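Re: [help] complex structure
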Amino acid sequence: MPATIVVGTQWGDEGKGKFTDLLAKEMAMVVRYQGGHNAGHTLVVGDETFALQLVPSGVLYDHTTPVIGNGVVVDPFVLLSEMKMLTDRGVDCSNLKVSGNAHLILPYHQQLDALHERHLGKNKLGTTKRGIGPAYADKSMRTGVRVQDMLDEGIFRAKIEAALSYHNKVLTKVFNRLPVDPDELADKVLSECLEGLRPHIADTINLIHGALESNEQVLFEGAQATFLDLDHGTYPFVTSSNPTAGGACPGAGVGPKHIDRIVGIAKAYVTRVGAGPFPTELFDDVGDAMVDIGREFGTNTGRRRRPGWFDAVMLRHAARLNSLTELAVTKLDVLDTFDEVKICVAYEIEGERVEELPYHQSSIHKATPIYETLPGWKTDLTQVTDRKDLPKEAIEYLNVVQDRTGVPISLVSTGPGRDQFIQFD
Ligand code: GDP
Ligand code: IMO
Ligand code: MG
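Output below.
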C-alpha cells in the first residue's frame, strides 16, 4: 500500500507545490493533511502559474483525486473562490473532496489572529493573519465548528452561537470591538458557501483507505515545514499544526505503516517569513541577491522572505524528525551567478562547536554558523535536465549537501517550470 509524503524541511516555501505537482503524475490521490490558506504553493506549467492555498497541488491532473484531509483548517469562502479561480482557468475541481471532520476558519478567527498579533506588539509572530492559530485553538478547546456541521443547520447555528458566546466576550471586553452576531454569520456562511461545498464534503478516511487498499498511489502534501511545526519548530515562532511527516497520520487518518516514501523538500539555500531565530540569515548583498534572483516574496502575503545559506544542521534534524527517505533540492539555479556557495555544517555556541540542533532555543539564538565554502559553478542551470550536464562544482555542492545531511538527493529543481528538474539518483 504505497504512500508518499512531501514535507518541507526548512521554514516553508521550499517548492513543495512544484514537487507535489511533479510527483502527482503518478498518483491516484493527493491529500493535504494540515495547515490552511496560510500555505501558498506555486505550480508553473508552461506559461501558466497557479498559486494554491487550500486545494491540493495534484488538482491539475484529471486522474488524481485532490483531498482536503481532516487535519486541515478550511476557510469556506477562500476554498470556494480558489475553486472558482481554477474552474475559470479550465481546471476541473469537480473531483475535489473535503473531509467533513476538517475544522472551519470563520471570519472571527481572522479578526482574533490580527488582534492577537497587535496585542503582542514587538513580540508579534508575523502570522499570515489567516486565522490559523485561533481556528486550531478552538479545535483544541472543543469549541470548533466542523465542515460537516454545515450539513445540519440547527447544529451549525448552535455551534457558532456557543463559540461566539466566548469570543464575543474577548472581542468586546478585551479588545473593545463590536460583537459578532451569530445568526448573521451563520446566514452568511450557509447562503454563500453551503451549496458550493456540499457536493465536495466527504468521508475522506474511507476514500483514502479505499485507494490504499486498491494499491493506488497516494501522496500526502505537507504545507508549512519542519521548523514551523508546533512541537518541533522554533516555538513560539511556528504555525499551529504539525507539518512534520508524522502529522500526515492524524491529519489524514492513516497509520504510519502505510507510508513508504518521505520526500523532504529543501531549498538550496534557506528562507523564512515572519519572526524567529535563523542562524544562517544573511543581511548583506548576497542575501539580497538570493531574494532578487529567487523572487523571494510570499506567494500569498507578498512579504519579503528572509534569506540565508543552506543549513545542514537543521536538515540533519529534519531528517530525523521526518524519517526522510530522500531529498528534493529546489532553486539550485538561484545560486548560478555566485562566486562561492556556503553550507552550514555546524554551529559555534559560546565557543563550542555544536553538530546537532540545540534543544534549547536560547542556544539557537546564539548560534554562529560554521561554513564549508565551495566554488560556485557560474553556469546557467535553468536548461539542464540531465545530471551529466551539471557542472562539476554544482555536483560537488549537491554531494556535500547529501553527505552533511545524510539523506540521498533524488531530484534537483533548476527552475519553477514543471519540466525544470534533474533526476539526481
Ligand atoms: P511551497 O510553499 O513550498 O510550495 O513554495 P512556494 O510556491 O511558496 O515558493 C517557491 C517559489 O519558488 C515559487 O514561486 C516556485 O514557482 C519557485 N520555484 C520552485 N522551484 C524552483 C526552482 O528550482 N528554481 C526557481 N528559480 N524557482 C523555483
Ligand atoms: P507554505 O506551505 C512560509 C509562517 C508565518 C509565521 C508563522 C505562523 O507556503 O510553505 P500562521 O499564519 O501559520 O499562524 O503563521 O508561520 N508561515 C509560513 N511561512 N510558508 C508557509 O506555508 C507558511 N505558513 C505559515 O509567516 O511566521
Ligand atoms: Mg509557499
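Residues 8, 12-13, 38-41, 125-128, 130, 132-133, 223-225, 228, 237, 239-240, 273-274 surround 6-O-phosphoryl inosine monophosphate (ligand 2) (CB under 6 Å).
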